[in-house]
């Protein structure tokens, strides 16, 4: 979530045209949104940065998009503009806003009670379904994916008696203090912008680059790492970064040989398929974590674990809470919504629609890149599409730093949003939902060709 970038302009883009376009689009955004401007002014008096979360203030628009209604795959703002939403709340709204199956389930549950601290049948139906889809036998509920990772890592330490964790450089796994680190020539240091007097990441965290198996082997060799925490395909750093052939087999083998647990974070990779990457790739981790879209827009997270980890967890929590859990975790609203998502939304048909539209979106972007001979790359994982300003697919997220093209990302985001298309505010990535319309994907293709034509100065070609 940091922005430690010199703002270089990617090759192929005319810097003067970019600066001009960015100014014009920023001014146009503000001019057409008097109500959003007024609300932002008001918000500044009671919210840090004038936004409910700090990172909204780092998104491209000069005043935030103020949403009046979110319906299906569309957003309607307070100034009367309508948008096709490809940002989908950074995967949290992957199924579309207010999916009818989720709305019906939540409405019904509201009448039956929204928090009780007692179990109901939905909890069992959900954990049984997770078992079936993702393979791991035992599951626990959390309020967020950050918490799922926090508790998974705590249990990994409990089960192994080791303290350290290992992560891939520039991966994001939520607001975890020991994960707020980056790899430099001098080793692991706190991520820029993170309080240096917090957790000592040099002591808690090892880091290697994604796809670097030699470095991974060296880092695990001393046998002091409790768990490797990994996304199966890296989705942060503004790109889709694929594991190289054999990577996952070697990762599993190295972790097993060194007594290290493997935690696979599926939070952003659910768009890969109805059983995430774990099922698509046939992975066999010790723990799985997720959140965001899993309850269709109601806050929720989950972690699954092997029998061995569950046995350690049971021993560990025999006499106390062990620092695990949260009062609202597994709340009836969230669990009812999860049951609806797993039973009625995460189906083969849903994924077929998302994949078909994502393929089209990727093809449109690739065609523009090719027509303009730009040394850029567009990647896809199921319903997620993302472009990187690198000539070949990135191998790791470290390669994408120092960041290149932040002002270009802002310009693209604003040009599209001023014309009715919203991308992810942080990375510019796009997600397809089961409610996304093909005509919106087509509109994106047309506008993308138009804006790249304007920025290269070579027209649409
Ligand atoms: C891979 C991954 N894991 C975990 C999280 C944390 O999710 P949340 O912010 O909902 O707790 C994120 C958030 O972006 C993520 O990308």
Strands in their spatial order, largest beta sheet: 4-12-11-10-9-5-8
Give the overall shape: globular
Q: Can you name the CATH architecture of the largest domain?
A: 3-Layer(aba) Sandwich
What assembly state would you assign to the polypeptide chains in this entry? Answer: single chain
Helix fraction, binned, reads 25-40%
Number of helices: 14
Rg, rounded, reads 22 Å
Q: Please write the CATH class name of the largest domain.
A: Alpha Beta
How would you state the average pLDDT, rounded? Answer: 95
What are the segments in which pLDDT stays under 50 over at least 5 consecutive residues? 1-5
Structural class: alpha/beta
Tell me the domain tally.
2
At CATH level 3, the topology of the largest domain is Aspartate Aminotransferase, domain 2
CATH superfamily of the largest domain: Type I PLP-dependent aspartate aminotransferase-like (Major domain)
First and last CA, distance: 36 Å
What is the succession of H and E elements?
Answer: HHEEEHHEHEEEHEHEHEHEEHHHEEHEEH
Number of strands: 16
Protein name: Aminotransferase class III-fold pyridoxal phosphate-dependent enzyme
GO molecular function: pyridoxal phosphate binding; transaminase activity
Organism: Actinomadura rubrisoli
Family: Belongs to the class-III pyridoxal-phosphate-dependent aminotransferase family.
